[in-house]
Amino acid sequence: MKEIDFMSPLHKSTKRDYLKRVNDPEYPKHKAAVLAKKFDFDYWDGDRRICYGGYNYIEGRWEKIAKKLIQHYQLKNDAKILDIGCGKGYLLFDLMKLLPDLNLYGLDISGYAAKNSKEEIKEKITVGNATNLPYPDEYFDLVISINTLHCLEAQDLYKALKEMERVGKKDKYLCVESYRNEVEKANLLYWQVSCEAFNTPQEWKWWFELTGYKGDYSFIYFE
User: Fold this and answer.
1) 115: domain range?
2) Can you tell me the mean pLDDT for 50-70?
3) For the chain, how many structural domains are there in total?
4) Which of 13, 40, 97, 130 is most buried, judging by how many CB atoms fall within 10 Å of its CB?
């Protein structure tokens, strides 16, 4: 188990106005959160004040992460990879571009995301819940979950971490939102629209120990 920062450069590339989001007259954060938590059109492709404001494929954006994963975990071309919370499958698609014979699996709770995913990997995406993965024990060479598990309440987070550990052989990697001080805590509260698990890095590590999660991890912060 190691803390490996794959995600910070991508996360920091987005500029955020925290006060504007929380105080927006039409979509104040509490209203945006109600819409976002349906993980339907409004979350992915609705107004930017709700969430992504159009979650579209950008050439090269996820390829940087894909290359890091391939290099760090020394993935072979026939490896089995699961992405929990894959959304529209952009990371899966970029993994496939780099290693065309990968056995790719994506799972997301959003039927809208699956329906509107990249055509090239649409058949590889299953609509489902991270708390009950439909795969055998130790089935995957690499299991990843990026910016997903913090969306779960405590009872479901427990199940999801147990499931992630169960279906992977050795290599696993997750990234979740966190905070290290009161400024980052306030910014996270202002910005997020789907987070349910508000934990410091120390608390996240407690969760890992509690559930037996032995994979790698990283945190993103709202500085």
Assistant:
1) 8-220
2) 95
3) 1
4) 130
- pLDDT confidence of residue 13: 86
SS in 3 state form for the chain?
CCECCCCHHHHHCCCCCHHHHHHCCCCCHHHHHHHHCCCCHHHHHCCCCCCCCCCCCCCCCCHHHHHHHHHHCCCCCCCEEEEECCCCCHHHHHHHHHCCCCEEEEEECCHHHHHCCCHHHHHHEEECCCCCCCCCCCCEEEEEEECCHHHCCHHHHHHHHHHHHHHEEEEEEEEEECCCCHHHHHHHHHHCCCCCCCCCHHHHHHHHHHHCCCCEEEEECCC
- Burial (CB count within 10 angstroms: exposed 0-12, middle 13-18, buried 19+), residue 115: exposed
Q: Give me the chain's average pLDDT, please.
A: 96
Inter-residue contact 163 to 99 (CB < 8 Å) = no
Q: Does 99 fall in a domain?
A: yes
Residue owning tokens 């894959």: 86
106-110-111-114 Cα dihedral, nearest 10 degrees: -40
Q: What pLDDT score was predicted for residue 37?
A: 97
Is the pLDDT assigned to residue 101 strictly greater than 90? Answer: yes
Confidence of residue 9 (pLDDT cuts 50, 70, 90): confident
Q: Look at the block and give the residue holding tokens 């020394």.
A: 74
CB 174 within 8 A of CB 150: no
